[in-house]
Specification:
The complex is a heterodimer. Chain A is mainly alpha-helical. Chain A contains 16 helices and 2 strands. The longest helix of chain A is centred in the first third of the chain and has 37 residues. Classes of the chains: A mainly alpha, B mainly alpha.
């Protein structure tokens, strides 16, 4: 069968993405309609750049959710006849097209790109969130108390930051390191922080009222403890939380690399905000130090932190791509974008079509996040 | 100033010591050593034979002793023998580092002027259409990591599909002779990613300077806009980007590793990967030390340079 002409490929791609596009338009229209009640999120709709950024992010987010509907083929299925075939080639048995052609193993480039969004969407936001909790739990006291605590923690943060990222990856995300106790130890330490964060937030607020404190803390400790034991691999009866050892390793490495930067940002913001009058007022009222940190300083630092979180998720996406590019990815067969680029670059000068879709996918997602961050920064400067 | 400098250098040395110790411990983890033993000795050695081999070759002595020994050698420039290249590490390392230095030099030559021009043009009229367009361009370049721009540039300029084929997709020959054809793509690839960030810092700094009272005074006295920008604003606006440019080096290092493997340019980045993927412990250690030292020295230059360039904080530091 002859391959599809370019026009038909474009139509075919649009058709596959139709549910995603409808979803993006619907969400944008709904949010724009209710923007006045949506606070900071609603303000995004005041700038074109912000809308474009949000649309790009929503596009990939929905693609990740609907991957099984958007993709034409199984991302792992190999069709010998379609190895390195150009975009638009038809798979004979099903009569369906390889919209972006086939890769060196005869897999559908389009479907792999679509499924690749899942890896990024599963790891990048969550890793950033975890890194934030680590950075906040350490940065607030460092900035608030200062002294040796600050000196020590800042030294540690600078130590990690002085490591070239690529070197740290090569030392931390290797098959050999899984045989040692390092990933488990790192998991045990790093996964403690989300629980610590929530407990500190709740406890500092309800400390004086044990009657509400205990019922509020119990579910936190139960869910947190369950998640902690599951993720560190100590005890997981349901099997729900088990992460692939390699995924866990990547996740930990990304959190480990990102958190010192966030520590520095939070520490800097704390140093600035703690001189404000409302902090002095809270101290005079006799509030505890943790209350001041988590309920006076942190909420007032949210603007820059939200902007930075957008940038940080984008940077994490780039980091994940870098890992995949060096073959340190989730698994050798995985359709994640970095690994796909890594495989495709070997034949780049002969067959360009397998490399371009994942490359442009990474770029558009990161661009969306950066544009959104820029729009949010503009908005927060305006008030 | 001297006290400040002394403190910074001291802190840098302590950091370097800590980092080398960490790297030393990480590359000497048990699985790595077992792999090394099987490579050097016999690949079918039993667990006991591996232990014996490690014991005989001194790998079972306490870590601090071995670290001290390694450090004593490293200070004298002796990093031991590379198992991948079968040559002393120093002989392998320095020529490769020189190749990467050349790459870095050209990246800087391309990146810094274009980033500064981009940032100044965007920042001198904050909020104008010119600013919006240039800022969006800057954001777009920061969203393009090296492995994306490298692939896209290769497709456009070096593939048969587009057919331009202006440049070569491989920089292997650049090791002997640098030409525009073999070096343009690697240099551009790294420069693009770093450029946007420097440009945005320059823009922010420029925009801030342009709101200062002395700029308004100069304008009111009748100096032309171009004159104000070039003579009054530019100098003060370039202090902040200086720090940013110096702090780009650690980022560039990752870029260099990506680009060197993408374009097969056998410099320092390529060496780092060879060492890591071939379990060449001595070489990986030496390369890590070099990488860490580069990062720390640029941090130091950036700190000291910032104080030197900005008289206002010279006293308080």
């Amino acid at each position: 069968m002859p391959p599809l002409p370019p026009g038909a490929i474009v139509l075919g791609v649009l058709e596959q993405f139709m549910p995603v596009l409808i979803g993006v338009v619907a969400i944008l229209a709904l949010s724009a309609g209710f923007r006045r009640w949506l606070g900071l999120y609603g303000q995004i709709f005041d700038s074109t750049i912000g809308i474009v950024g949000l649309a790009l992010i929503l596009f990939w987010l929905l693609t990740a959710f609907l991957a099984s509907h958007v993709a034409v083929f199984d991302p792992y299925a190999q069709f010998r006849a379609l190895q390195n075939k150009p975009p638009g080639s038809i798979e004979a048995a099903s009569g369906l097209p390889f919209l972006f052609g086939g890769d060196a193993l005869g897999r559908d480039v389009f479907s792999r790109m679509v499924y690749g969004s899942r890896t990024v969407m599963a790891i990048a936001p969550l890793a950033t969130l975890f890194a934030y909790m680590v950075g906040i739990c350490l940065g607030l006291p460092a900035g608030y108390y200062g002294g040796w605590l600050d000196t020590g923690l800042s030294f540690l943060a600078n130590l990690v930051l002085a490591f070239p990222v690529i070197l740290l990856f090569y030392l931390l995300v290797t098959p050999e390191i899984r045989e040692t106790a390092i990933p488990t130890t790192m998991a045990a330490v790093l996964f403690l922080f989300p629980i610590l964060f929530v407990v500190l937030v709740v406890w500092s607020r309800l400390r004086e009222r044990p009657r509400t404190l205990v019922p509020a803390l119990l579910p936190v400790l139960a869910i947190g403890g369950f998640g902690y034991l599951g993720l560190t691999g100590a005890w997981d009866p349901t099997g729900l939380l088990r992460m692939e050892p390699n995924t866990l390793n990547i996740f930990l490495a990304v959190v480990f690399i990102t958190s010192p930067t966030i520590f520095r940002i939070v520490r800097g913001l704390t140093l600035d905000i703690k001189t404000r009058d409302y902090v002095a007022a809270a101290q005079t009222r006799g509030e505890s130090a943790w209350y001041v940190m988590f309920w006076e300083i942190l909420p007032n630092a949210r603007g820059p932190l939200i902007v930075d979180a957008c940038l940080r998720i984008g940077y994490t996406t780039i980091l994940l791509g870098t890992l995949g590019f060096f073959g340190l990815g989730v698994s050798p067969e995985s359709p994640d974008w970095g690994s796909t680029i890594n495989e495709a670059r070997k034949l780049l000068r002969v067959y360009v079509h397998p490399a371009l879709p994942p490359a442009l996918a990474i770029m558009s997602l990161v661009l969306g996040l950066n544009l959104l961050a820029d729009a949010l920064r503009e908005q927060s400067l305006r008030d | 100033m001297l006290v400040f400098l002394g403190k910074r250098v001291g802190l840098m040395l302590v950091t370097a010591l800590c980092l080398t110790l960490i790297v030393f411990a990480l590359v000497n983890l048990k699985p790595n050593l077992v792999k090394l033993a099987k490579e050097q000795g016999n690949s079918r050695m039993s667990a006991e034979q591996v232990e014996v081999w490690l014991d005989q070759n001194g790998f079972r002595r306490p870590l601090p002793v071995r670290y001290g020994e390694w450090l004593a050698g490293a200070v004298r420039g002796d990093f031991g023998q590379s198992s991948r290249f079968h040559a002393p590490v120093a002989e392998v390392l320095w020529p490769r580092l020189w190749l990467t230095a050349k790459l870095m030099f050209w990246v800087m030559v391309v990146m810094v002027p274009s980033a500064l021009v981009l940032g100044v043009l965007a920042g001198m009229r904050e909020g104008s259409a010119q600013d919006r367009v240039l800022s969006t361009v800057a954001i777009a370049t920061t969203s393009t990591p090296e492995y994306v721009s490298g692939v896209v540039l290769t497709v456009i300029f070096a593939s048969k599909m587009v057919g331009l084929q202006w440049f070569s997709g491989s920089a292997t020959s650049a090791a002997e002779q640098i030409t525009l054809e073999n070096f343009a793509l690697p240099v551009l690839t790294i420069a693009i990613y770093g450029m946007g960030y420097v440009a945005r810092m320059t823009r922010a700094s420029m925009a801030e300077v342009m709101t200062q009272a002395y700029i308004r005074t100069a304008r009111l006295k009748g100096v032309s806009f171009a004159g104000v920008v070039l003579r009054h604003a530019l100098r003060n606006a370039l202090i902040a980007p200086f720090t940013v440019i110096m702090l780009q080096f650690p980022w560039l290092l990752t870029g260099v590793v990506i680009v060197e493997s993408l374009f097969n340019y056998r410099g320092f980045g390529w060496l780092l990967i060879e060492a890591a993927s071939n379990n060449d412990i001595n070489l990986l250690l030496a390369a890590s030390v070099v990488a860490v030292v580069i990062v720390l020295v640029t941090q130091l230059i950036s700190d000291v340079g910032y104080v030197y360039l900005n008289p206002r904080i010279r006293v308080s530091a």
